[in-house]
Here is the input.
Amino acid sequence: MSKICVIGSSSMDLVVTSRKRPKAGETVLGESFETVPGGKGANQAVAAARLGAEVWMIGCVGDDQYGKTILNNFQANGVLTDYVETVTHQTTGTAHIVLSNGDNSIIVVKGANDAVTPQFVQKAIAAIKRADIVLIQQEIPEETVDYVSELCKELSIPLLLNPAPARLLRKETIENATYITPNEHEASLLFQGLSQKEMLRRYPEKLLITEGKNGVRYHNGAEEKLIPSFPVKAVDTTGAGDTFNAGFAVALSEGQNIKSALQFANRAASLSVQKFGAQGGMPTREEMECEHS
Ligand code: RIB
Here is the structure.
């Protein structure tokens, strides 16, 4: 069984479904409201565990009902929580999501996710040292992402950096990461002044640009490749990127090459969007194999 560490956010998603997205100053009537576990880190941990990896989550929640629900959800999905700490000085992170016409818009309030500091990550060093791959995103402090990139480089542990939500990154952090998986918007912020072709050529087999329902694009050292996604009817795309990242990490850690790992990741993401909620449609390994046959 492959071993994965996810260092990142755990949040409660507060999801409103509405036919109309309000403009500034406007009030509209929505159709439904639900609270479901989310946060990019937690989503990636749950997706990787469902896909069959042994997963340690390294993160923080608040000492409140949302925090308890998130911990129970990790346990229900087989994610190891030895390094998930309940902090008392911050409330659990929340994501405020409007789902409208098949698309989402999200405001994240980081809360306890800001307690995922470099000092906090050091407490989980034993798990990190045993990992086949480490996953990290950007809903935790920037200095932690920089620190983990250095740590993984020093320990020679592959690091998959999902640079979401978008922000600028130090050049060293980009260089230290083994794989970087921005969407097109995040890529243009990270590599300002370069065309997409130039970025991909500069980072062969490392930079993987996701293009939503189009697929994922990378350079294999000889030429640019698009690995197309699977056409499906999407109910909710929240968490599709997280499922993609987890699927890619699981497949790589099992020894698959980049192309087949990307196909595996695309298939997992295509299943995930067919149900409501960031984690609602994340497939189990059995469901992936069923889909494959
Ligand atoms: O990637 C999807 C996630 O982003 C949601 O679950 C929400 O928590 C936001 O952080």
